[in-house]
């Protein structure tokens, strides 16, 4: 336990370094963008004088390093800044969307992770069999369908034709369990299919890899049943790669779900970040990037701890 | 050989027509500026009810709640009329606010908060306000509110979208308990029309914070606003038009993806949808539950040929490209017939000043070849910039590329993303696309996009004759003379300006069949964005 | 030839499909009966078997010709991008695994930083900055998936590096290069091949996602994902213009993965002596 505790402390320190790298990388990339918030704000009707004045007001005339330092200083004192596009605090904009995103991510993870694990382990146990082949083709074809096509097919069937579910994911203020179910059914289903297919494939590959190791063969030769060999020997050693794949897949649920958010008009943080890019709203863009990075680091931390808990050899090496 | 001779003869004829038009232009200029008659609109309140636009086929029904979707939504959504820049903003602004005037279906303006709007010289305008109008917070409408609302556009800190137009205001002063005077720097007969735009809606005096609240005099009160998510308006029982509005509540959302928007309409999740693609109309009509409404507008996507860059500064190249535009194919294939063929100038056939004697420019590869050769550009490779930001431009560029191959040159297509297009690409390349929203006032349209020193003189066109005509027409009170001037200007643009306008796009909206009371207003989709006060929901 | 013979049926099917699609990718543009950008018909979303083999698209172009023309983007961009991402990711992971903990930590943190930026938004920014072009799409997709490959390779490599035979080799005084290439690489190669197959699929998907956001391959050219996207409004009427490219994408990705699976499957069996 002490090892894990130390690891967490160490990781938090390292995470801060990673966050700093992200902020610098994002700041650098964002500075490649042509145009700025002043131009985007005035759009087609921008005159050079108006743009110049607005630029001054936004502080965009400062050198990039100074702007970066100012923003970082603000962040350290707990102020994520003000959105250039609509003059509201960035923290306020994000917090209202974040809860929505977390809800969508949570429901999806809850369904997709166990589903994918079972699928992957079963496929590995019966590798080469018909079940395995069927699952292989199924997961591959699911992973190969563009998610916008999948989502549109769902909408056409369940909303337009059958009229069972709403085509837009709105949660009314006085929503009950049934309303939540209706609002989330299609977006969650879309994301589950996209994610669990890839998680299942990675799980299968990792378990299969362990099953081919001599120690598992040994156990099997000693007469231990396949399910026991898988659960007792192969799985713990395969946990490292599996949790990594899961962490990667789940981190997708915060920033990568733009398309699902667009199609179901779901107000999440991914579309907020797209807005930030479109409006050249740097404070918001930076804050979203930091948010995604933090979410990812938390997932990775969990993945690493799980790997260490599962594989004693890593405890000393970690 | 014979072919070439024929071509040369055709060219000669074109040249003759051209010089003929020049004489006509001079005539109209000479007569300009002599006659000024009183114009403007002055209508007492009781006439308003009769002349209001709708002829209700059925008795309106009160009550109900609808959800309406436009085609965009972002954190940039605003409650400030001055900052409104996209269709969603326009709808939101017209829901909550009213202007001094409002657009009608005949491409004119009716009085709204202004009871009378008069001028003797088109430069000094007397405005009398309607009495008994209250803001949503209960405050009465006063001339001071109007003065504040109009003059704030001149404050750079407001970052108003209408600042270039507001620059024409010399002075706006209160002249009585319910009256004010607007003095312009120069006469402009179109002021009543220009003030009907959503940017000039009236806010309460002294309002500076628009982040979460909107205090207007419009048909709906703001109930909820969340930028990039939704706007909810509830019925304003004290609306100044008696008996209106009809609905209890309107929820406004933006669905950027067209196919999602249509699906939402067909599944009954929204009751009205802005901007339906021509290809989706069949599906909407077939559904049985929804229908479409078409609005003929003067919205256009044009090919800009910069006059300050090579090779687009060559007049023969410009003409060659204009002959390469396959207008019929664009109208048919790109817009499924939901478009009107245009003649390389920005005035739509439905406009009262449309020059219908100007011959329609055909799709003519032989003439294009002739001009291309004359320009010495046969075989040239020219890049053209297109973007989804300018509707239809990407497909138009692809068609132009095909015509170019036939005419003996190559257009290389550069598609660039919609975001940042207006600031980084528009008017910045020798050959690129623009997209211009309907403007009722030709003066506004020409002053913004075609005058030599216009802020968005798209092609960098410099034509002193055009500028003179424009200035003369602005103060011209004689209708016939004014019309002749606008005719001449259209001809000049069509013949000489570095712009090719293939078609005007019709606006198509979708709506639930239970939605009643809607009719087209050509300034934009969803009844010029002002459907909120007109529609009701039938049982 | 031996490899092909020893393959299971699914592998042979995969190989056949891969050969078919690569053939289309290389020769498709020459085989197309019409120009991919020519409007040939007035009617849009025509069904299969009319005047045009696979019907017409949303503005009346020949779907068959457009697929023949567009396949090369869907084959070559993802193939190159996935190869770049996987090889770079694996190499860096090997280097990281045999280097000291400090180097490993620095590389890992940097990769974490890269990976936490959502790929679609990264692409959005890069394309807004540089304009969409095939080399840029290739670069973006390769960069987007490299850190993911790295993480998986590193997890595998660290696992292997902790195994007894590596420890033995290390105490024997073998060089880092030897450890990485001779001891670790062969043991992580098979899972990385599977990873390559998945990355290939991811790049195909990212490309079609980008086309959804309007950032993909430049028109009038279109990769298969863009074809699906631009014709999506024909889905309700079951237009082949949207269904056929979707099926094409599915068969390409399945074929690549079946082939890779059977290759590593064969290898695994061989290693186990069966």
What can you tell me about this protein's structure?
The complex is a heterotrimer of chains A (318), B (539) and C (274). By secondary structure, chain A is mainly α. Chain A has a single domain (2-33, 80-315), classed as MetI-like fold (Orthogonal Bundle), CATH 1.10.3720. Chain A has 14 helices and no strands. Chain A has helices spanning 2-30, 37-42, 48-58, 64-76, 90-125, 130-144, 147-161, 177-211, 214-221, 226-255, 258-263, 269-278, 282-310, 313-317. The longest helix of chain A is centred in the middle third of the chain and has 36 residues, at 90-125. The two termini of chain A are 13 Å apart. Chain B has 539 residues and is α+β, with helices and mostly antiparallel strands. Chain B is built from 17 helices and 21 strands. Chain B has helices at residues 2-30, 45-51, 87-96, 143-151, 163-166, 191-194, 258-266, 281-286, 315-324, 327-334, 365-374, 393-407, 421-424, 442-449, 464-474, 479-496, 525-528, and strands at residues 39-42, 65-70, 101-103, 109-111, 114-119, 124-129, 169-176, 179-184, 220-226, 230-235, 249-254, 272-273, 290-305, 339-341, 381-386, 410-415, 431-436, 499-500, 503-512, 515-516, 536-537. In chain B, a hairpin with a 5-residue loop joins strand 3 and strand 4. In chain B, helix 9 (315-324) packs antiparallel against helix 11 and helix 15 runs antiparallel to helix 16 (479-496). The radius of gyration of chain B is 24 Å and the shape is globular. Mean pLDDT of chain B is 86; it is low at 1-54. In chain C, helix 4 packs antiparallel against helix 6. Chain C contains ten helices and no strands. With 274 residues, chain C is mainly α. Chain C has helices spanning 2-6, 9-31, 63-98, 101-115, 119-130, 134-161, 164-171, 176-212, 224-230, 240-271. Chains A and C meet through helix 1, helix 6, helix 7, helix 8 and helix 10 of A and helix 4, helix 5, helix 6, helix 8 and helix 9 of C. Chain A: Keywords: Cell membrane, Membrane, Transmembrane, Transmembrane helix, Transport. Chain A: One of its GO terms (cellular component) is plasma membrane. Chain A: Its main location: membrane. Chain A: Belongs to the binding-protein-dependent transport system permease family. OppBC subfamily. Chain A: It is a multi-pass membrane protein.
């Amino acid at each position: 336990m002490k090892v894990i505790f130390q690891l967490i402390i160490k990781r938090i320190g390292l995470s801060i370094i990673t966050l700093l790298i992200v902020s610098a990388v994002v700041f650098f990339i964002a500075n490649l963008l042509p145009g700025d918030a002043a131009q985007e704000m005035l759009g087609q009707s921008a005159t050079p004088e108006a743009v110049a004045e607005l630029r001054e007001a936004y502080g965009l005339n400062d050198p990039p390093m100074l702007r970066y330092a100012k923003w970082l200083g603000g962040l350290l004192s707990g102020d994520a800044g003000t959105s250039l596009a609509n003059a509201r605090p960035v923290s306020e904009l994000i917090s209202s969307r974040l809860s929505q995103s977390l809800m969508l991510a949570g429901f999806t993870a809850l369904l997709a992770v166990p589903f994918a694990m079972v699928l992957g382990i079963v496929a590995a146990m019966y590798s080469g069999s018909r079940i395995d082949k069927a699952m292989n083709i199924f997961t591959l074809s699911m992973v190969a369908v563009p998610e916008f096509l999948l989502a549109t097919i769902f909408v056409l069937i369940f909303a337009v034709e059958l009229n069972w579910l709403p085509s837009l994911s709105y949660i009314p203020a006085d929503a009950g369990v049934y309303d939540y179910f209706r609002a989330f059914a299609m977006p969650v289903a879309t994301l589950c299919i996209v994610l669990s297919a890839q998680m299942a494939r990675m799980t299968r590959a990792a378990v299969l890899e362990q099953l081919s190791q001599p120690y598992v063969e040994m156990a099997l030769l000693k007469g231990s049943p396949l399910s026991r060999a898988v659960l007792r020997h192969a799985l713990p050693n395969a946990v490292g790669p599996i949790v990594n794949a899961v962490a990667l897949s789940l981190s997708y649920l915060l920033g990568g779900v733009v398309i699902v958010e667009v199609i179901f008009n779901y107000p999440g943080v991914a579309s907020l970040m797209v807005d930030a890019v479109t409006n050249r709203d740097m404070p918001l863009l930076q804050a979203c990037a930091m948010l995604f990075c933090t979410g990812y680091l938390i997932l990775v931390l969990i993945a690493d701890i799980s790997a260490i808990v599962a594989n004693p050899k890593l405890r000393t090496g970690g | 050989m014979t072919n070439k001779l024929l071509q040369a003869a055709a060219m000669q004829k074109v040249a003759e027509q051209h010089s003929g038009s020049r004489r006509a232009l001079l005539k109209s200029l000479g007569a300009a500026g002599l006659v000024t008659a009183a114009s403007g609109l002055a209508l007492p309140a009781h006439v308003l009810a009769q002349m209001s636009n709708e002829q209700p086929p059925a008795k309106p029904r009160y009550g109900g709640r609808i959800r309406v979707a436009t085609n965009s939504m972002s954190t940039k959504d605003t409650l400030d009329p001055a900052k409104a820049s996209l269709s969603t903003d326009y709808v939101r602004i017209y829901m909550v606010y009213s202007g001094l005037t409002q657009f009608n279906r005949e491409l004119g303006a009716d009085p709204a908060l202004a009871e009378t709007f008069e001028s003797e010289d088109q430069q000094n305008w007397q405005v009398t306000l309607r009495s008994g109008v209250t803001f949503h917070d209960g405050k009465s409408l006063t001339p001071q509110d109007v003065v504040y609302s109009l003059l704030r556009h001149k404050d750079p800190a407001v970052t108003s979208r209408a600042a270039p137009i507001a620059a024409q205001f010399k002075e706006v002063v209160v002249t009585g308990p319910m009256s004010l005077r607007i003095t312009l720097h120069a006469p402009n007969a179109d002021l009543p029309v220009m003030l009907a735009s959503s940017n000039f809606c009236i806010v309460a005096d002294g309002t500076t914070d628009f982040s979460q609240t909107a205090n207007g005099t419009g048909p709906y009160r703001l109930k909820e606003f969340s930028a990039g998510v939704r706007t909810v308006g509830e019925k304003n029982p004290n609306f100044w038009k008696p008996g209106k509005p009809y609905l209890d509540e309107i929820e406004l959302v933006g669905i950027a993806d067209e196919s999602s928007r249509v699906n939402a309409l067909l599944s009954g999740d929204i009751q009205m949808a802005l901007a339906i693609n021509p290809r989706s109309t069949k599906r909407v009509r077939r559904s049985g539950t929804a229908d479409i409404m078409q609005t003929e507008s003067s919205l256009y996507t044009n090919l800009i040929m910069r006059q300050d860059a090579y090779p687009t500064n060559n007049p023969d190249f410009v003409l060659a490209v204009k002959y390469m535009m396959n207008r019929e194919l664009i109208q048919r294939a790109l817009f499924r017939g939901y478009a009107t063929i245009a003649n390389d100038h920005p005035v739509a056939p439905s406009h009262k000043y449309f020059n219908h004697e100007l011959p329609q420019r055909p799709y003519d590869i032989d003439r294009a070849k002739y001009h291309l050769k004359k320009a010495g550009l046969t075989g040239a490779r020219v890049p053209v910039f297109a973007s989804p930001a300018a509707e239809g431009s990407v497909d138009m560029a692809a068609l132009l590329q095909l015509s170019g191959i036939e005419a003996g040159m190559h257009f290389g297509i550069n598609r660039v993303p919609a975001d940042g297009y207006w600031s980084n690409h528009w008017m910045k390349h020798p050959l690129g696309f623009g997209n211009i929203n309907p403007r009722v006032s030709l003066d506004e349209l020409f002053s913004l996009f075609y005058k030599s020193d216009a802020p968005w003189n798209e092609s960098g066109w410099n034509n002193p004759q055009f500028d003179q005509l424009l200035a003369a027409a602005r103060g011209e009170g004689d209708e016939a003379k004014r019309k002749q001037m606008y005719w001449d200007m259209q001809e000049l643009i069509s013949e000489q300006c570095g712009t090719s306008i293939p078609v005007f796009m019709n606006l198509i909206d979708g709506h639930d069949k239970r939605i009643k009371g809607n009719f087209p207003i050509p300034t934009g989709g969803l009844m010029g964005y002002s459907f909120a006060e007109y529609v009701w929901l039938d049982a | 030839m031996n490899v092909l013979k020893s393959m299971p049926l699914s592998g042979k099917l995969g190989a056949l499909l891969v050969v078919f699609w690569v053939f289309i990718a290389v020769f498709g543009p020459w085989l197309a009966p019409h120009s991919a950008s020519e409007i040939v018909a007035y009617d849009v979303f025509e069904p299969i078997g009319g005047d045009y083999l696979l019907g017409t698209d949303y503005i009346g172009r020949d779907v068959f010709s457009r697929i023949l023309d567009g396949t090369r983007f869907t084959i070559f961009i993802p193939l190159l991008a996935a190869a770049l991402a996987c090889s770079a990711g694996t190499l860096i992971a090997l280097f990281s695994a045999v280097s000291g903990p400090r180097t490993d930590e620095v590389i890992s943190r940097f990769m974490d930083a890269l990976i936490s930026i959502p790929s679609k938004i990264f692409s959005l920014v890069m394309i807004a900055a540089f304009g969409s072009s095939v080399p840029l799409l290739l670069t973006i997709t390769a960069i987007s998936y490299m850190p993911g490959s790295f993480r998986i390779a590193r997890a595998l490599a660290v696992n292997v590096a902790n195994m007894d035979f590596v420890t033995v080799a290390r105490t024997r005084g073998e060089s880092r290069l030897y450890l990485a290439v001779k001891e670790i690489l062969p043991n992580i190669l098979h899972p990385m091949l599977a990873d390559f197959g998945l990355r290939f699929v991811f790049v195909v998907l990212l490309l079609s996602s980008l086309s959804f956001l309007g950032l993909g391959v430049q028109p009038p050219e279109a990769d298969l994902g863009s074809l699906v996207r631009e014709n999506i409004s024909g889905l309700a009427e079951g237009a082949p213009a949207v269904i056929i490219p979707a099926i094409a994408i599915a068969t390409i990705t399945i074929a690549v993965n079946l082939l890779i699976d059977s290759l590593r499957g064969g290898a695994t069996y061989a290693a186990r002596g069966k």
